[in-house]
Amino acid sequence: MIDPVLASRLQFALTTIVHIIFPVMSMGLAPFLIYFTWKEIRTKQPVYEQLRRFWTRIFAVSFVVGTVTGLVLEFEFGTNFAAFSTTAGELFGGPLALEGMMAFMLEATFLGIFVFGRDRVSDRLYFLSSIAVGLGTWLSAVWILIANSWMQTPRGFEIVVENGQRIVKLTDPLAAYLNPRFPYMFIHMQNAAVESVALFMAGVAAYYVFRHHVWGYPIEHIDVWEKTLKIALVVLLITAPLQVIQGDEYARHVSETQPQKFAAMEAVWETDSYVPEYIVAFPTDVNDLLNPRTKDLFGIGIPGGASWLASGGNPQATIRGLDSFSTKAPPVAIVFWAFRIMVALGFWFILLAVWGAYRWWRGELFEDDLLHKALMASSLLGFLAVEVGWIVTEVGRQPWVIQGVMKTSAGVSPSLTGAEATFTLLGFVTGYILLLGLYTYVIGRIIRAGPPSRDELTQSNAAHVPESEVMSSD
């Protein structure tokens, strides 16, 4: 049987890795849906109604699955991390409760209008519902990231003892909720969600554009996919550079507030200056290949690059090494490589955006088969970048569940046995593989079906014309 601490961490990691796909999809789609709705109402062009209807289906499915998997995560705080919940419940419970009462209820209430009410409410109310759905989606992120960012840079609290138990007592809610990490995490996460969805949209659109313009296959409503590709490229051209620029500031903030995590990101074991930014690094001993905390590394990097990143421009800056901390280092290899994958993908997304913009400017956007293939191959890479980014955030914080306050091992439910933890872990692995497979199948069906045709839109709109309008027209 697996140790209950390890099993609980693996289970929470699994459920988080799967769950995060769905809120990223819904958060990223929200601004697009608001734009499509606005353009549909303002211009009356059928292409925007087709875009809204098509992407709303994917949004609705992602919202439902994200809600279910999100509830599972909250239950795990009680089943697997009861000691953490007891200690931090006063602070942690507030944002989670507000997320449910404020954000989720707002989103769920207006989602019904947005999905089913287009022909039953006025344009103004319908557009308001699109804004409310998007606002609810983003408000959910606000409260979740407030809770998580506090765990990274805890503020506004004191530790008291009640009935022999150390408890986090909230003393300054404003300082706790608006802790130093929150703005960095929120901007980075929301921009990543929009960027990921833009990549996904571009990849789907490129598939149909490629088949039509390069292979010559007749594709129904090709104008929808051409419009999708252009909109996605515009958004990608904005979000991709912004993510790299803001990510650079974020990394500098991490070096100031969580120096042990930053040292793990750069694999710096001994305090030193003029530290290189390793592009790749490998153990010098074959026996250490499976040791995530190996110290003897051979690396190829940019001299002074890590020091420059940590200080914001000084290649001679000193970086504190992992050996100088009293706590055990996090799994350095996992954090190191996850960070590099995230950064490499970030620059690849910029290249894709500039490449697409150049081809568009040259009038060759729909004929560049190599660009289409690159976009198709990259359609899911935004989600991969989000996943490895969260690995850096969460694994890099170890051994702390609350930075400098509580270790992860102390937060696990004390009564949880290895057998119970192993059994539930295996059950979650099986269940989440099936869930992810079902979600992929449904989304694939929606994409293959494509947006509704203009004849279908005409029939649908005619079927929902209010009786009063029919009588007045007669």
TrEMBL record:
<keyword id="KW-0408">Iron</keyword>
<feature type="transmembrane region" description="Helical">
    <location>
        <begin position="54"/>
        <end position="73"/>
    </location>
</feature>
<feature type="transmembrane region" description="Helical">
    <location>
        <begin position="192"/>
        <end position="210"/>
    </location>
</feature>
<keyword id="KW-0472">Membrane</keyword>
<feature type="transmembrane region" description="Helical">
    <location>
        <begin position="423"/>
        <end position="444"/>
    </location>
</feature>
<keyword id="KW-0812">Transmembrane</keyword>
<feature type="transmembrane region" description="Helical">
    <location>
        <begin position="334"/>
        <end position="358"/>
    </location>
</feature>
<feature type="transmembrane region" description="Helical">
    <location>
        <begin position="12"/>
        <end position="34"/>
    </location>
</feature>
<keyword id="KW-1003">Cell membrane</keyword>
<keyword id="KW-1133">Transmembrane helix</keyword>
<keyword id="KW-0813">Transport</keyword>
<dbReference type="Pfam" id="PF01654">
    <property type="entry name" value="Cyt_bd_oxida_I"/>
</dbReference>
<feature type="transmembrane region" description="Helical">
    <location>
        <begin position="93"/>
        <end position="116"/>
    </location>
</feature>
<dbReference type="InterPro" id="IPR002585">
    <property type="entry name" value="Cyt-d_ubiquinol_oxidase_su_1"/>
</dbReference>
<keyword id="KW-0249">Electron transport</keyword>
<keyword id="KW-0479">Metal-binding</keyword>
<keyword id="KW-0349">Heme</keyword>
<protein>
    <submittedName>
        <fullName>Cytochrome ubiquinol oxidase subunit I</fullName>
    </submittedName>
</protein>
<feature type="transmembrane region" description="Helical">
    <location>
        <begin position="125"/>
        <end position="146"/>
    </location>
</feature>
<feature type="region of interest" description="Disordered">
    <location>
        <begin position="454"/>
        <end position="474"/>
    </location>
</feature>
